Amino acid sequence: xxxxxxxxxxxxxxxxxxxxxxxxxxxxxxxxxxxxEEINKETxxxxxxxxxxxSGSLVSDDIINSLIENxxxxxxxxxxxxxxxxxxxxxxxxxxxxxxxKYDQRIDIVIRLKVSLNVIKKRITGRVIxxxxxxxxxxxxxxxxxxxxxxxxxxLQKRDDDNVDVAIKxxxxxxxxxxxxxxxxxxxxxxxxxNGEIDxxxxxxxxxxxxxxxxx
Length: 216
Ligand code: AMP
Fold this sequence. Notes:
The protein is built from eight helices and eight strands; from the N terminus they run E-H-E-H-H-H-E-H-E-H-E-E-E-H-E-H. By secondary structure, it is α/β, with parallel strands linked by helices. It has a single domain (3-115, 172-215), classed as 3-Layer(aba) Sandwich (Rossmann fold), CATH 3.40.50.300. The strands form two sheets. It has a five-stranded parallel β-sheet with strand order 2-3-1-4-8, sandwiched between helices. The chain has a three-stranded antiparallel β-sheet with strand order 6-5-7. Helix 1 (13-24) packs across helix 8 and helix 2 packs across helix 3 (44-55). The chain is globular, with a radius of gyration of 17 Å. The termini are close together. The site of adenosine monophosphate (AMP) has 17 residues, from helix 2 and helix 3.
C-alpha cells in the first residue's frame, strides 16, 4: 500500500505518519526531512536550499523529484511508502504518477488532514522535535511525558521555519500551489478527508479505519 498524507504545514502529517508507519510497516518519505538532513549536514545541496526552506518557499521540482526517484526505485520500499509533504504542486503529482508507473506501483489512498490557519499558527509555534529520535511534540498541546526515555528537554529543538511569519507564508504556498494537487487525486477518486483539528488519537482512529479497509 502506498499512501499520500496531505494537508497544510502543521496539520499533523508527521505525527500521524509515525503511527501509520508502525502499524502498517511502511516507509515514511518526508521531503521536508530529506531536505533538512541536507541542510544540517551542510552538503552542497543543503547550502543551496537553506534560504529557500527557511523562507517558506518551495524547493525546485528537479531537486525534489530526484530525491523521490531514489526511494521509489528501491525494491525494499516497493508499495510500502507513505509520502509526507510530496507532491506539493501539480508537476510533482504528475511526476510521481510517471515514476510509480515506471516502477509498477500506484497510490492507494490520499488522506487529507483539514486544519484552519488559526490552529496551524498555534501548532507551528509550539512544535518541537527530538534531535535524537525525530519524534514531534507540541509544547502546548502534546509535550513529551516526564517519563519519556529519549526525548528529554535538552534534546528538543525548534525548526528554523517554525515561526508565525513563515508559517503564514507556508500556508499561502500550500493554498496556491498545493490545492490543485487535490483535484488531481479527486479525479482518481483517491481522496479521503479527515478533520485534523480533533485530538491526535481520534484523528489516527479515522485514518486507521480507512487504511484497514485497503489492507483487507
Ligand atoms: P515540510 O517539512 O514538509 O513542512 O517542508 C519544509 C520545507 O521544505 C517547505 O516549506 C519547502 O521549503 C521544502 N519542501 C518540502 N517538501 C517539498 C516539496 N515536495 N517541494 C518543494 N519544496 C519542499
